[in-house]
Design brief:
mainly alpha; 0% strand; elongated
């Protein structure tokens, strides 16, 4: 019995020691962030950051709609011409019309893909912000019932924390991005840690700060994927190459990444499997709406014939 008590005492002392170390780490980061050279980080509310992101995406979608409208009209003209021809399917378009049809398809695909990629990050950011809100409730000890819609975002927050429970706190260089807003939450969270007290409240406060830092990392990885996919879109030269290889650049990068990056990516995959993007909803497709639509039948027939001749 005495051995068991000594063992329990050691476990309790170890827990207190780990908590003191975590508190010292947070205190060091807090002091560093307030004394480091340069002006203090400006306050950025998470609501303001999300509003800016939503506004940007709305403006972008409006611009894409304006650009796609004349392309669709020209595509419809070519399709009408092909449908009212008495020639065989693979001969209904002249070589000039065929080349133009491929150009139009590529232009449309690039515009739709820009919409898809931007919409995808917007979906990720919304989920990350809601996970941060769930983390704040967890810090206060609030229980979120499984039937509550917020339960999913609590799961995201817990998953993020589990990837790196003792994450290093970093300073955000941005003005009012999602990362900067999350950093503000992080700073406020550190301010609320009672460095003299202990117990469950202190433990939850420390976990909250690390959860927000992990959500910042998750957001950073979502942006990395966004940039990789967008670069791929803008570097596209021909429809076949683009539609066959879209997303490969990020997959290749992920294959050589650390296990932590892969774990964060797994969390993003979980989010995308549960929450469709605006692009997917508007196109009445599932969260995997990244699949590219097929070429028009007449163009595809001509394209297939040319490839056989090569």
């Amino acid at each position: 019995m005495f051995k068991r008590r000594r063992s329990d005492g050691r476990d309790l002392r170890d827990d207190h020691r780990r908590q003191r170390i975590a508190v010292r780490e947070l205190l060091a980061v807090l002091l560093l962030s307030t004394t480091i050279g340069g002006p203090a980080v400006a306050y950025c509310a998470i609501e303001d950051a999300m509003r800016q992101l939503e506004t940007y995406n709305s403006r972008l979608r409006s611009e894409i709609a304006k650009k796609t409208s004349p392309i669709r009209r020209e595509q419809e003209e070519l399709n009408w011409r092909a449908k009212h021809s008495n020639l065989a399917v693979n001969q209904r378009l002249s070589q000039q019309d065929f080349v133009r049809a491929l150009q139009l398809n590529l232009q449309m695909m690039i515009l739709r893909s820009e919409d898809l990629v931007n919409s995808g990050y917007l979906r990720d950011a919304r989920a990350i912000v809601k996970a941060a809100n769930a983390a704040a409730k967890m810090r206060e000890g609030t229980t979120i019932d499984d039937s509550n819609p917020e339960a999913f975002y609590q799961k995201v927050a817990k998953f993020a924390l589990s990837v790196n429970p003792r994450s290093n706190i970093t300073i955000s260089p941005d003005d009012c991005s999602i990362d900067a807003a999350l950093f503000v939450l992080e700073r406020l969270g550190m301010d609320q840690v009672d460095f003299q007290a202990g117990g469950a409240n202190t433990g939850r406060a420390i976990e909250y700060v690390h959860t927000i830092e992990n959500l910042r990392t998750l957001n950073g990885i979502a942006i990395m994927e966004f940039q990789a996919n967008m670069d791929e879109v803008h570097q596209s030269e021909q429809y076949r190459k683009f539609s066959d290889q879209f997303g490969r650049a990020w997959k290749a990068r992920l294959n050589v990444s650390s296990n932590k990056v892969k774990a964060y990516n797994q969390l993003l995959t979980m989010i995308r499997g549960a929450i469709p993007s605006d692009f997917a909803i508007e196109n009445q497709r599932g969260p995997d709406a990244a699949n590219m639509p097929a070429l028009h039948g007449t163009v595809a027939a001509k394209d297939k014939e040319l490839r056989r001749a090569q």
